[in-house]
Amino acid sequence: MIKIFKFAIIVICLGTFNSCLDYEELRENPNNPNQVPPSLIFTDLTPGPVESFEGAYERMQYHVNIGTDNINEPSFISGFGGSFNYGTLRNVAKMIEEAEKVGAPEYAILGKFFRARTYIEMTRRMGDIPLSEAEQGADIPQPRYDSQKSIYIQALNWLDEANSELGDFIAANPTRLLEGDLYYNGNLKQWQKLINSYTLRILVSLSKKENDTDVNVKGRFQAIVSNGTKYPLMTSIADNAEFTFSNEDGFRQDYNPNCAVCREAEIYASTYIDLLKAKQDPRLMQVADPTRDAVEANPGDLAAVKADFDSYAGADISAEGIVNSAKKLDGDFSLPNFDRYWNFVGQPAVLISYWEQELNIAEAAHRGWIPNSPATHYNNGITASMEWYGVDSADIADYLSTNQPYIVGDAGLKRLLEQKYIAFAENSGQESFFMTRRTGVPTYVFSSFNDIDPGESYPIRWTYPGSEDVNNNENYRAALVSQFGAEVDDRDQIIWLLKD
């Protein structure tokens, strides 16, 4: 997905550069322009989504890659090395600087969103990180670490400021379009909705801190959902921030017929498939094909086979690789739905969605943070997810009234979180992982075959960059002691965000 998104960035940047740059300004040195349009930097800063069947979703146990001659199991301890995205932050600062030069405050405003998101994405992975002394370059080459709590408060304040300032700008400039926009064709109101939906995402991720008055999770959440004029939110899946693929060079999804071995290599995991089957969820038929065993058992009635929930099966992602490989060859597992996925377009890659927003509001209401009806938003979220997959409206209504209606109590919260897991399948990047890390829903399966030995736990945090122990040793080690009581940096330590 990264290479596809970057290709799209190049295409838009070329057009934007030609249309926005005053060539008279290049005459001093045409090979080194004195300024860069902020729209170019904005396009480069725009976060790209993670497309379906990428490795990140294997960690969340939606699918498992079992190549033709592959007997290896997925490792669940790899990929947890953190990094400081100072390059991104420098680009944010540069975009704000260029925006001020050319009188384009909309980019400076959106810079607050990008800055907040960048710090949040770092801290939610690693814990305490530098903020107040970061971005100072040679002036402060060894920045001290700020507490994760203070980082979240600052980031939430930036997000609130971005919403307010963008709302005022839109009111004063109702026809202004945002150049370099990969998601919304320049519609600033859509970006304001995205900022607020993203803020709700972050507030829900702070559920273990709901009673911390400094963070004020409940008050912030209530302020957003109770004032649609000041805080506009998404109203349908048309508001999703998503990237749609096309059958053109540079814009095709990776899982496509040009990668012939991919068709048989991507297998659904039982963690995901068994949940759909248990709930008699019609999304199952939209995302998966019946097993070859099921089709061969009733070759004369394919429609009946597809309609039977027992025709579908996922691989146990914790099993020995050679066992899963043999079962795959025997036709025991379901592949991704041929009609939906095995082409050059597949499904859009989603950054953030309307269904996530609605299920987040449902969770907040269920927890008693807001007076809104949890059932209404629960139904909205599931309906939106099912519509995105193309489920028939009658099946949606039956599912919500009979199979999986909203219920109260602990069982209701678990059901709601399971619905989030289903809705996050193969979309929205790491959000499914962060939800499961926070709530324990669903229960991941793993074994020593996944490099997690008995008595060990699934990783829950990213380690700090190894260079910190060399380049910022004193502050790095102080941060470890402050958070974990010892100078130990590993994947199992509990960061402030996850402490009850």
TrEMBL record:
<dbReference type="InterPro" id="IPR011990">
    <property type="entry name" value="TPR-like_helical_dom_sf"/>
</dbReference>
<keyword id="KW-0449">Lipoprotein</keyword>
<dbReference type="InterPro" id="IPR041662">
    <property type="entry name" value="SusD-like_2"/>
</dbReference>
<protein>
    <submittedName>
        <fullName>SusD/RagB family nutrient-binding outer membrane lipoprotein</fullName>
    </submittedName>
</protein>
<dbReference type="Pfam" id="PF12771">
    <property type="entry name" value="SusD-like_2"/>
</dbReference>
